[in-house]
Amino acid sequence: MKKLIFATSNEEKMKEIRAILADTGYEILSMAQAGIQTDTEETGQSFEENAQIKAQAVHRISHTLVLADDSGLEIDYLNREPGIYSSRYMGEDTSYQIKNAKLIERLQGVPMQQRTARFVCAIAAVFEDGRCVTIRETMEGYIGYESCGEHGFGYDPIFYIDPKGPSNAQLSMEEKNRLSHRGKALKAIKKELL
What's the pTM? Predict the structure, then answer.
């Protein structure tokens, strides 16, 4: 079976990735499973650039097909913060419970129609021959007034597709994969793999 390395050590993310790419015919490995350790600095100015930087760094070590994503949350009212700094917002070691509480606090008093936001996911695929393809997808929605739900991870508990509906963290994995920025990007990159 052909191998595909996804340049992440996030096991929650790997569950999503494996579910969507299960029928591609590739054995899908995380960096840890592939025995690759690299601390690539995300110096890009966009999600696309950061995904390419990560994929190319792992490809230089593995010489195999590598996928990498860079994803995050953009909140329009906050000038699209945290954006490409989503995972490092308030420090990498700060829990998402604290990050989510801070974002809700920063939006205190802001009406729902001005709480528009999106999850963005850019996925870069670097093929064995070095060719690079990058896909960008989004999931549009709103930032809620409170954190709700036990599923998902990261900013999912404060993100709502519909202001009256459930948060991303209240959706089943199947629903989330169907609607999410990463789900859409993975489905688009899957066409490139097939």
Answer: 0.89
First to last CA, the chain: 14
C-alpha to C-alpha distance for 157 and 101, rounded to whole angstroms: 10
Domain with 86 in it: 2-193
Q: What confidence tens digit (pLDDT) does each residue in 47-77 have?
A: 999 999 999 999 999 999 999 999 999 999 9
Look up 93 and say whether it is catalytic: no
CATH number for 103: 3.90.950.10
What's the total number of domains in the chain? 1
Question: Annotated catalytic residue: which of 39, 70, 129, 156?
Answer: 70
Residue length of the chain? 194
116-126 and 81-82 strand pairing: unpaired
